[in-house]
Design a protein that fits this description.
By secondary structure, this protein is α+β, with helices and mostly antiparallel strands. Helix content is 39%, strand content 21%.
């Protein structure tokens, strides 16, 4: 069997996707298999965390791509090997977004293109170059520049802390597991983007990570520990308080759930009080 078929055929037979989200689950399974087969240090970040961990009474609408954060990937060429493995497995390069790889997955009688994003953590808080080159291909960018196409990773700010235990193994189908970001990781990585226009679902992700957290006491303890150990990263949580105070957090979440505002406000206010986010930020 051709290697690109190795990662897809098994899941197509067993899962037979009937909708777009089921196709995304195949993407996640295929991605996990490649990552685990090649023993790289990674964490799945983004919407898969609240979708898999916190979609209980209030359902998460799902996510269609896979965001992979690679440890030490702020070093040039660090991901050359694993990117090559993805290409060998049939993933398609993006001509426009050179930190993405595409995968064609059939859903019902149509073929859909899904994508994975290649991310690296910021090594320092003052970095300005958000892209790192990892692999150069023998393909010129155009006829005018003496420069080849380079596959890159894109920075996920303030995310190095995730590798300090803010993830856990999550079992998928067919004995495949992923390193999945936990609730504190979800809240922190979305604390800045939550105030960006049209990032509606980030608000819901944050709310579900708090409201339907698997272990609320552990979340509070971990957040307070971050406050004492890493004040700059903890301070990024004040972006959530800003979104709460200007009603962005609630209005965006209401796009997906009809939870009463009183209940919503109680959940978020309690979390702020328990984690001391109700107090002014300090350096």
């Amino acid at each position: 069997m051709h290697q690109s078929a190795r990662y897809t055929t098994l899941y197509l037979i067993k899962m037979k996707p009937d909708n777009i989200q089921e196709g995304a689950k195949i993407l996640l399974n295929d991605t996990a298999k490649i990552l685990n087969d090649n023993a790289v240090n990674y964490i799945i970040v983004g919407g898969w965390s609240p979708y898999l961990l916190n979609s209980t009474e209030i359902k998460h609408p799902g996510t269609k791509d896979v965001d992979i954060l690679f440890e030490n990937a702020y070093k040039p060429e660090e991901l050359k090997g694993i990117i090559s493995k993805f290409i060998e497995a049939g993933f398609i390069l993006s001509a426009k977004h050179d930190f993405q790889l595409f995968k064609k997955i059939p859903v019902r009688n149509f073929e859909f293109i899904y994508n994975i994003d290649i991310l690296h953590p910021s090594e320092t808080t003052w970095e300005t170059d958000i892209f790192i080159d990892h692999i150069e291909l023998d393909v010129p960018k155009d006829e005018f520049q003496d420069e080849n196409f380079k596959m890159k990773s894109i920075m996920l700010p303030d995310s190095n802390f995730l590798f300090d235990g803010h993830y856990s193994k999550y079992e998928l189908s067919d004995n495949t597991s992923i390193n999945l970001m936990n609730e504190l990781g979800c809240i922190l990585t979305k604390s800045k983007s939550v105030n960006i226009e049209k990032r509606f679902r980030d608000s819901l992700d944050i709310f579900l990570a708090i409201h339907q957290c698997r272990d609320y006491d552990s979340l509070v303890t971990s957040t307070l520990k971050l406050r004492s150990d890493n004040q700059p990263v903890y301070n990024s949580l004040y972006g959530i308080r800003e979104a709460f105070e200007n009603s962005t957090l609630f209005m965006n979440s209401r796009r997906y759930t009809d939870i009463p505002k009183e209940n919503f406000d109680h959940t978020i206010s309690k979390f702020f009080k328990d984690t001391k986010l109700n107090l002014p930020a300090s350096n």
